[in-house]
Structure formats: structure tokens, C-alpha cells
Amino acid sequence: MILNIHESTADTTHQHHERSLDSLKRLSLAHSLVDKVVGEGNLKALQALSLFALYNQLSGHCLTLTTLNGMIVSLAQSLGLHRHARRFKMGVGEVELRKRLWWWVYVFDRFTSILHGLPPLINDVDVDNDLPIDCHLNDLEVTELSHPLPGERTAVFVFLQYVSLGKKLSRILDLLYTTTQRRDGARKITDLDRDLRVWNQNLKANGILFDIGITGLQHSSDGTNHSYESTTIWLELMANITMTLIHRPGLSFDDTTPEFGNCLRACLDSGSAILSLLEMSNIPKWLRNLSLVGPATIFQSALVHIYSQLKYRTFKPDGFPSLDTSMGMVSKGISILTMESSRATQAQGAFYSESVSEIIKTLQTLLSSLPVAQGLVETPHVVNDGVPVSDAPDTFDEQTWSGNALDSLNYMTASDWMGDPSGPFMGFMDLGES
């Protein structure tokens, strides 16, 4: 599986890769050994299943993640990885390995929960294990851990930020996305927003420079122009998606309250950042899969701009994007989805491509409903089919966008599932090979 993971992530210039014959043989072998590996029930078996699950995640095989998640969570808990090291007599090297493995399983469980809209399998009250340490671990038999020099960090540092985001996502799910504990939503959103921004400031103190909800290559607090490495793009994408998840429940508030406006503005800012990142950095598909970015995320990041412009057609509060800015963001979403559709034709079959095409047509139709014809912008944008958006239909008026904002924004959330290329895993049909 390590070879397959390397093969799927090595070439960042292409979104899809033709599977080599050796790769397919390895995948077939891995699939045939799953039951045997689960039966081993030891730490090495959990590592093997984790690599198998990671490959599925990187490859976008969504439908297999729930089954694999159940396997690895059950095995990890049976091995006691969720318990503190003081309960066991182990060396510091093995303790550190167990912590790293456990927290990867924990975050994978949260990501699977968000992706499929299902409750997580791991209950936070059952976990008392410490977070991993930023250190070198080359030998499990060591008596002391090797820490980096002051001002330096190891590759584990990025993983620790991944775990930190996973814990924040867990809190968000518990406080905002359950059928209970719905009181004081505005206060919870404010606290979660502040917590995420503090995490962002700590990242900048460690040289990873980006600001949540800010678009553009030069947006660090000190104005430094820094190169966008994969880890920075990945963390920035995840941070903006997390911020969107924090504020989306606020769109169910009364739209005359300040809290509604604050949440809508945060969704607009983070949605713009997501679209700009996807457009300017040409993010490889495996990195998008690891960041929970699919067609639905792109669609809703653009749709929130259309909602905002039609909601505040006659009065625009301070801090909201102009009509021209929103039109540009929607056009970015259409452009990104168009590239996705053309690539999907070859990699995932005609059904998936047609599904993405329907999303594109929906955005184009909604974009044409913006009030450009009223002379609010000087140069109207042109959508991909060459039709100026000034040819606006009369079917979209302010009444269409009254009421609960989530009724509009939740449309076509399941687009990420359409034509899921499940691969030769767990008995699912591989649409990518048909």
C-alpha cells in the first residue's frame, strides 16, 4: 500500500493517474488479505489497515471509508490505544507510536463522519490518551525521545496540526450538529470561531503563513510573499472548511439579527478563500480528497455568493462583497467544476460527469439571475457557454431567497457521492475501470 500511496501522490501535475498493472495487482492482493489482517488483531495489523484506509481516502473512494473506519476503530480500541500510557508498561518509543496511530484513527473517524453525515464511532469521553510529541522516532527501543532544536520542527508538526483540527471538528459536531444541545448557538459559534483563529495565529508563529477567510498569495500578517507548499495549502483549505462548518448553522438564525449577518459573512469569506485556493494552486485530486473538498463544497462556496447578492439586493451591509466580486467567485466555481467534469469523463464515467454538469448548469442559471442588467457593474462576466449573465431570467426574485438560508444552500449536497470511484475494495464496483 505504501507503493500505491506514493504512486497516487507522486505526480502533482495531473488530477488522475492511470493505474499500472503492478498497482492493480497490489490492490487486488490487499483486498484479498483484509479479513486475514483484521483477524491478526495486533498493532501491525492496525498499521496495515490504516495504510489501506489512507489510500482509499486519497483516491476518493468514499463508499469504502465507513466499512474501513469501523474496522480500524474497533481494532484500535481493542488494543487500548485510546487509553493513557500510564495504564501500560511500555517504552517511550512504543508509547509515542501508539499515540500517533491512535490520533490518526481518531481524525479519520471524524472525517468519515463529516463526509457521510453519520455519527462518529469514537466518544470523546472514552479517550484519555495524550497527543503525540513533535519528535524524531527512528527506533521503538529508544529510552529517550529525540526532540528538534529550538526553532525547528519535525514532519510530525504538520500531523499535530491535523490532529488539532480533528479535535476542533469533533467539538463542532458535538456542539452544533447534534439533535440535542442546540441552545446558545450564537455563543457557541463565537467561541469556536475564536478558538480556530487562535490556532491560526499559532501556526503563523511557526512559519505557516495564511489567514482564514483571506484570498490572495500575499495575505500573511507581515505581508511576506511565501510559496504555497502542499502542506500549507492543505492546512489552509482545512481551516476554511472548518470555519464554514462553524458558521453554517448560523444561517438558520433570524435573518434580521446581527448573528445571521456575521455567520453569512464568515461563510462568504471562507468560501471565497476555498475557491481562490482551488483555482490558483491547481491542487491535485488526492490533496483535495484529504481536505474534504468535493463538487458539493465548490458548489456551495459559489452558491452562498448568489444567495448573499439576491438576499441583499437593495441594501448591502458593511463588509459584504460587491456584486462584481461575487460574480467573479461564482465564475471561479463554474471554471473549477468545468475542469472537474472534463477530467471525470475519463476517470469516473459519464454518469459522474453528467452530475457535475448539472451543478454547473445550475450555477450558470443562478449567476444569470444576478441584477447585472440594472447597471450595478460596468463589465458583466461571461459564463462558460459564452452567454452574458446580463440575460437574466425573471424567475428569481427576492421572495425566492426569503426564509431559512440553509434550505437554499443544502441543495445538491450529495453531489460528492455521484459516481463515487469505489475501486476494487470491499466488493464495490469500480466505476473508474468501467
UniProtKB/TrEMBL annotation:
Domain Xylanolytic transcriptional activator regulatory: 65-138
Top-level taxon of the source organism: Eukaryota
This protein's UniProt keywords: Nucleus
Record InterPro entries: AtrR-like, XnlR_reg_dom
Gene Ontology terms for molecular function: DNA binding; DNA-binding transcription factor activity; zinc ion binding
Presence of keyword Cell cycle: no
GO BP annotation list: DNA-templated transcription
Protein name: Xylanolytic transcriptional activator regulatory domain-containing protein
Protein source organism: Penicillium crustosum
